[in-house]
Design brief:
The complex is a heterodimer of chains A (317) and B (303). Chain A contains twelve helices and 14 strands. Chain A has helices at 7-21, 33-36, 39-44, 56-68, 87-95, 124-129, 142-154, 200-213, 231-241, 256-265, 287-293, 298-310, and strands spanning 4-5, 25-29, 49-51, 72-78, 102-106, 135-137, 159-162, 168-169, 184-187, 192-196, 218-222, 225-227, 244-251, 272-277. In chain A, 58% of the residues are buried. Chain B has a single domain, classed as Thiamin diphosphate (ThDP)-binding fold, Pyr/PP domains (Rossmann fold), CATH 3.40.50. In chain B, a hairpin with a 2-residue loop joins strand 6 (212-213) and strand 7 (216-217). The longest helix of chain B is centred in the N-terminal third of the chain and has 19 residues, at 40-58. The radius of gyration of chain B is 18 Å and the shape is globular. Chain B starts with 6 loop residues before the first strand and ends with a helix. The chains are: A alpha/beta (317), B alpha/beta (303). The interface between A and B is medium-sized, with 31 and 33 residues.
Chain lengths: 317, 303
Amino acid sequence: MPQEMSTRKAYGRALVELGEKNPDIVVLDADLSMSTMTHMFAQRFPHRFFDCGIAEQNMIGIAAGLAASGKIPFASTFAVFVPGRCFDQLRLSVAQSQLNVKIVATHGGITSGEDGFSHHAIEDLALICALPGFYVLVPTDAIETTQMVRTAAVTPAPFYIRLSRPSTPVIFDENYHFVLGKAVTLRQGNDAAIIAIGIMVSRALEAAKHLAQEGIECRVVSMPTIKPLDEEAILQSAKETGAIVTAEEHLKHGGLGSRVAQVVAQHYAIPMDFVAIEDTYARSGKAEELLQRYGLTAPAIEQAVKSAISRKQVHHS
Amino acid sequence: MTEMPLHEGGLAIGCRGQASVDSEAGEVFPNADCKSSCSLEEIARTLRRHIVTMIAAAGSGHPGGSLSAVEIVTVLFFRLMRHRSYDPNWKQRDHFILSKGHAAPLLYAALAESGYFPTKELITLRKIDSRLQGHTDRAMVPGVESTAGSLGQGLSFAIGVALACKLDSLDSRIYTLLGDGECDEGQIWEAAMAAPHYHLDNLTAIVDRNNQQIDGWTRDVMNTEPLGEKWHSFGWHVIEVDGHDIGQLLSAFEEAKQIKDKSSVIIAHTIKGKGVSFMENNLKFHGTAPTQEQLEIALRELA
């Protein structure tokens, strides 16, 4: 495995691997197969690949019908179009129908970059997490993506897996084992916990390293399954560190931060902070420029950690 | 016309206006019994009685668009479709996908009379502990293939089922019932473009062309004419029939079966509320239950 790889590329490869093993795997796309990487599957298994054209609503409906007939459909497009363009189809034809449809959406967050805000998916997690019955996953790297796709294929339920456009650091090695619904503690520490998803995980690790140099020991928890959340890991972090910071490439409301806060609030009165996009839309630019501009950086996480720690009650110290 | 064994299951129809007899799911009645003992016209009348009775008992529901499609559903469930009430998920079955989900009472009545569940359950429609939801829920009721209620989604779903049948080399036929008002939805036309593109000659859509939608006549609310030409231009084989004429419907479905390499649509010209004089073409009964007094009149007319 190279040091960097995009999660969408890992997805494309995983689909082909699955397709070899299971003839019931079918793949749908909405005219973005070169970008979502489903073209790899299309080339290998043309009769099991359905390009639906630029018609996401129809794509979801077709996927539902295939699932109802025992197929395992993976439907892909950009995260801005699914769930955004076809929310009601996801609601009625998939969630309410309790069908085994796998949505794998690429170009999540603002790192799709230069295309501008029409192509930045920053509300997708809020939308999809609102639907009962969906598993919602955000992988940290290419290794985890492959395992998530395999897990989704053998777990009969609706899934939403959110991938990124750019190459991202490979954090896990081949011995890593993704477990659905389980958080992964990547670094120990008891002064604060940083709970992160996707591209923010490597930034959280970087922030923790810097903070350690200042004598602040942070726990870093990756939360690849954001629905259902690993409540045990969250509560353990809350109890043992007394301060929680979340980090995500999504709006501050409705995503990881909101969901974690809801769990924490039921059990502990501890300070939290949220590294996420404020209530606004971003602009065109290079991925890294946008992450800097909208505060999705290691220094921003460090700032948030210090702020949360400063608000701790005395008895937590 | 095929001589295949078609509907296999408990037929619960009481002919000549007699009370229905419930049969346990799992019991097999040869299809021949159905044809010899009950005419399709009699079955249609029985379904209509169920529809008005169950909606009256519920105190809410959509009689108009259920009554308009009775002959379409009768012909499919009691003559043309291969299905087994004792094995709803039978792999070789033909599929009926209700897209206009507000016609749920019609589907429930057809399923009950086919033996999927007891007809006495029909009057539980819309009640808190009933399986018979206001709009269909595929997870709850045996024989209900699709969850519906938000319009425009059934044709796409039917395409998915049709593709799966092709992948599995099954000769099953897939039928989906759409409303004409439903054809306002953009997703219908996304799907209309896709079905012929995938050469789905195993798929037949039926448009219940009753010319009314909640806010009025379809020509006034959103004019879909020329409806047949639209479907034709999207690549479909179009057949227009009187949707209350069983003979015309049977011929149309047979014609659709013979068409190769493309999908067929039957535009069934119907009357909303058909069979109950005061409901016919009466917009009020799109989504209003009859009172007890109205029910009695309706049942007399449908006796």
